[in-house]
Amino acid sequence: MLASIKQYLKDFDALFFPRVCQSCGRSLVKTESCFCTICIYQLPYTKYHLDQNNKLAKQFWGRLDIASAAAFLYFNKAGKVQNMMHQLKYNNQPQVGVELGKMYGKELVKEFHYNNIEAIIPVPLHPKKFKKRGYNQSEQFAIGLSEIMKIPVYNQILYRDLEKESQTGKSRTLRFDNMEAVFKAEKPNLALNNILLVDDTITTGATLESCALVLQSIGIKKINIVGIAFTE
After folding, report:
1. Of 201, 211, 160, 215, which Cα lies nearest the Cα of 46?
2. PANTHER family in the record, alphabetically (predicted)?
3. Does residue 33 share a domain with residue 74?
4. Which of 65, 150, 182, 211 is the most exposed place for a label (fewest CB within 10 A)?
5. What's the pTM value of the predicted model, to 2 decimals?
6. What is the band of 21 on the pLDDT scale with cuts at 50, 70, 90?
7. CATH code for the domain in which residue 67 is found
């Protein structure tokens, strides 16, 4: 009887608040979560985690000593991934990040390279932006990765010290100059040698470069970078 009432309430709720795909807007069936099966099949997957010399990793060559760099998806304007990222960042849909983290986590755990990671550290938001949005989209992605990979998320090690102007439209050099002194790090009580640094959308990599340098300055030797999407 109780189970029947719960199902009735779910059906009633779905009538007025239908569950839709956060990529294309189609109605979801009971077996689908966050994204429809069609979108999951059609997403532009990079497969960068299978290639240590991928295009994203090459962006850091000669600039930053990292163990690896990969992104789950390609970011294309007016495409499915842009829709997802818009829902995640601006439409109060943190579950989008969590779900994408779970999806990518299932791929990463298959690779030996990611088996010895000790912590997942998300790129932080400035407190003002966090307060406005209510959550850190990179941390939501990290939570999804953590659930599948069984690696703890540390969100207190890295933080933003200053709120800089928008990075949009800036070159890689200007972006990096703009990010100097933005990030600070607190040395953790336990020694961390191999971590996963997580961001949402990666363009020039300037933000991640700045974060990684700060983390290296507190003794973290091996840094792997992972993003939800990469803009070529």
Report:
1. 201
2. DNA UTILIZATION PROTEIN YHGH
3. no
4. 150
5. 0.86
6. very high
7. 3.40.50
Same domain? For 34 and 141 the reply is: no
Q: Residue 16 above 90 pLDDT?
A: no
Q: How many whole angstroms separate alpha carbon 83 and alpha carbon 23?
A: 5
Q: How many helices (H) and strands (E) does the chain have?
A: 9, 6
- What is the per-residue burial (b if ≥16 Cβ within 10 Å, else e) of 119-135? bbbbbbbeeeeeeeeeb
Rounded to a whole number of angstroms, the CA Rg of the chain reads: 19
Q: Count structural domains, the chain.
A: 2
Question: Percentage of the chain with pLDDT > 70?
Answer: 84
Distance separating alpha carbons of residues 135 and 84, to the nearest angstrom: 16
Rounded distance, CA 21 to CA 35, Å? 4
| 179 and 155 belong to one structural domain | yes
Tell me the C-alpha to C-alpha distance, in Å, between residue 61 and each of 53, 56, 163: 10, 10, 28
Residues spanned by the domain of 114: 43-230
Retrieve residue 15's tokens: 């009538």
Taking the C-alpha atoms of residue 62 and residue 197, their distance in angstroms, rounded to an integer, is 19
d(CA 194, CA 184): 19
Chain segment 178-207, per-residue pLDDT in tens: 555 689 999 888 889 999 999 999 999 999
Chain centre distance of CA 82: 14
* b (16+ CB within 10 A) / e for 83-97: bbbebbbeeebbbbb
Model confidence pLDDT, tens digit, residues 99-124? 999 999 999 999 999 999 999 999 99
